[in-house]
Amino acid sequence: MSQVILDVVRGIAQAAANSYDGAHDENGDPVEIGLKREKGHPVHDSRHMDGFKVRVDGNHMIVTYQYDLQLKDVYGGKLETELEQTMEDITRHLKKEYKKITGNTLSLSSAGEVDAHVQKISNVRVTCTANKTYKVNSFENVVDKLEPSSDKLDKNFKNFLEQGGWGNKPKNKDQQGQHKS
After folding, report:
1. Distance of alpha carbon 26 from its chain centroid, rounded?
2. pLDDT tens-place string over residues 75-117
3. Measured between alpha carbons, how far is 58 from 63 in angstroms, rounded to an integer?
4. What is the DSSP code string of 80-142?
5. Cβ-contact 92, 106 below 8 angstroms
6. Which residue among 26, 84, 86, 140 has the highest number of C-beta atoms inside a 10 angstrom radius?
7. Distances (CA, A) of 75 to 46, 49, 70, 120, 142
8. What is the tens place of the pLDDT at every residue in 42-74?
9. Among residues 41, 82, 36, 87, which one has the least CA distance to residue 61?
10. Reduced to 3 states, what is the DSSP secondary structure of residue 14?
11. What gap in Å lies between CA 128 and CA 124, rounded to an integer?
12. Neighbours of 63 (CB within 10 A)
């Protein structure tokens, strides 16, 4: 792994770490990401349970967003667009935070749409876990796991296999491991 890739991964990790619930910026103001937990008064209103995490896999960054909602919100028909908007808010915040930390820009491009998994908790509440994959454009010479594999056998090993490798049987019984009695 090159130093450039390591610095990008560390910057992404630090940007995500600076985004915990209750975080404040350098002016003492609460950090606003665009999550549901930020709406309303923290004491007087019932708060939504939501949060996100980020992981890097090859040359992709995967954002996972988890939150609890009511069953009627799932059937409202706006869940997918709401999740897309939330993912855009999260990545916008991560890019801004990454720029503050490293001084460099983080270039991401979407590698697909949101993949959501909704599970029933009760007859009223459900939990939703959504993933979205982004390609990190600054990663060079990183093997993409999503690409088909190619034949990368060593020349000496190929020659060994062409000469018979493990496929040929030995000619006499002593070489097969059988003993004469």
Report:
1. 28
2. 877 888 889 998 999 999 899 889 998 999 988 989 889 999 9
3. 14
4. HHHHHHHHHHHHHHHHHHHHHHHSS---EEE-S--EEEEEESSSSEEEEEEEEEEEETT--S-
5. no
6. 86
7. 22, 19, 9, 13, 41
8. 555 566 678 889 999 888 899 999 988 888 888
9. 87
10. helix
11. 13
12. 21
Least confident of 60-69, 126-135, 136-145: 136-145
Q: Which residue has the tokens 């988890």?
A: 66
Interatomic CA distance for residues 116 and 129, integer angstroms = 6
Amino acid occupying residue 149: S
More confident residue, 23 or 132: 132
**Bridge partners for 47 per DSSP:** none
Distances 162 to 92, 139, 156, 165, 167 between C-alpha atoms, Å: 54, 37, 10, 7, 10
Please provide residue 17's backbone torsions phi and psi, each rounded to the nearest 5 degrees: -65, -30
Q: Are 19 and 93 contacting, i.e. CB atoms less than 8 angstroms apart? A: yes
